[in-house]
Amino acid sequence: MDNKKIANDVIAALEDVIDPELGIDIVNLGLIYDVDVDDQGKCKINMTLTTPGCPLSDVLNHDIDQKARSVDGINDVEINLVWYPIWSMDKMSRYAKIALGIGGM
C-alpha cells in the first residue's frame, strides 16, 4: 500500500467538499494543511477554518469524513482542527481567488 498515493487520493476527494459560505472547495481555499495515512489505513487530516467558531464546522467535518472514507485503503479518519498557522487569503489557490473575484494575484 502506497500511503503517499492514498493521501493524495484523499486530498483529491476533499476537493468535492464545498465550503457552503464561499462556494469553493476546502482544498483550494487552503484549509487542508496536511493529510497523513498510516499502514493501518488511518487518515489524519490537519485543517483549519476561515474563522474560529465557524458555524459550519460540523457540516464540513461530516463531509470530510465521508469523502476521506470513500478512498480505497482508508479505514478510519481523524480530523484535527488547528489554528496555527493562521489561515489567510494567501493560502487560497489562484483558482479560488479568481472564483471569488479577489485581485492582486
Automatic annotation (TrEMBL):
Signal peptide: none annotated. Residues 9-80 form the MIP18 family-like domain. InterPro entries: Fe-S_Maturation_MIP18, FSCA_dom_sf, MIP18-like. Pfam families: FeS_assembly_P. This is Metal-sulfur cluster assembly factor.
